[in-house]
Amino acid sequence: MKRIDLPISKLSLAQKLDLMEKLWSELTRDDKKMKSPAWHEAILKDREQAFTAGKVTASDWEQSKKRIKKKIS
Question: Are 33 and 27 in contact (CB under 8 A)?
Answer without folding.
Answer: no
